[in-house]
Amino acid sequence: MSTAVSVNFEDSLSTRDFRQLSSFIYDYCGIKMTDAKRSMLEGRLRKRLRATGFRSFGDYCEYLFRQDGLKDEVIYLIDVVTTNKTDFFREPNHFDFLEKTALPTLAKQGIRQPRTWSSACSTGAEPYTMAMVMAEAVEKGVIADFSILATDLSTDVLRKAHSGIYNRDLLEPVPSAMQRKYVMQARDKYRSDVRISPKLRAKVGFARMNLMNPSYEIGAPVHVIFCRNVLIYFDKKTQTHVLTELCKCLAPGGYLMIGHSESVTGINLPVKQVANTVFLKQ
After folding, report:
1. pTM over 0.90, yes/no
2. What's the farthest any 2 CA atoms get from each other in the chain?
């Protein structure tokens, strides 16, 4: 095992430690750390080593796997390895479908207070975009009210999401009319951060959830699920598990939306495709 003599991180991740880490990460959250991702993992772990004071990757892995350190460190380890790319109105056709098809159709079925779930919410751009679209639907009388559950594996991104504070540039895709209603500007015009309005933040509940859990305890079935751009990190076995459990949480007549680069091909699910990467539970 390699051991550094000072915190200069010229040490590298050994094959043994990489394999043990990648095996644990896959078992814990379904993310495959292939050999091609070894340097990425090493780079991200350097920050964690600095935070914890370990002098080498070997010392860190010794602590994790042979000194029972995982019970205290696992949340931070997973925060380091998860990817959290997000934007407001990302893949906008899903929000168009939510506004123009899903919500009116649910309302016609008598569901005027739909429950929705952003199942890999990252720093919150997705659920807050959902909330803007649904708040507009309330204003227009399409629905009476709504609630959004937003979950993620990473505690770090959940803290950021709960705060609702973002760099102004990230809000550029949000239409100006929505920004005026749902985004608070700082009094200091030179500040670069803005905040989602309290009224909108109150409609979103954040919680930590691992999609590798045997089942998803979210309460009553929901009417819309967004699970976008997370399946691409899973192998087919894990994709099957995640999609199967998501469908169990979806009410009949509810909608599942996945990322544009993702597919349900070859997975037996109680859904039919009704638009590009949009599925209706039968």
Report:
1. no
2. 68
Tell me, yes or no, whether 36 and 131 share the same domain: no
What are the catalytic residues? 44, 152
What are the tens digits of pLDDT across the range 41-71?
Answer: 888 888 888 888 888 899 999 999 888 888 8
Dist. CA 226–CA 229, nearest whole Å: 10
Per-residue pLDDT tens for 222-273? 999 999 988 988 889 999 999 999 999 999 999 999 999 899 999 999 999 9
Neighbour count for residue 14 (Cβ, 10 Å): 15
* 149 and 24 housed in the same domain: no
Predicted confidence at residue 214, as pLDDT, reads: 94
| Cα(1)–Cα(132) distance, integer angstroms | 52
| pLDDT for res 33 | 84
Residues of the domain holding 53: 15-81
Amino acid at residue number 243:
L
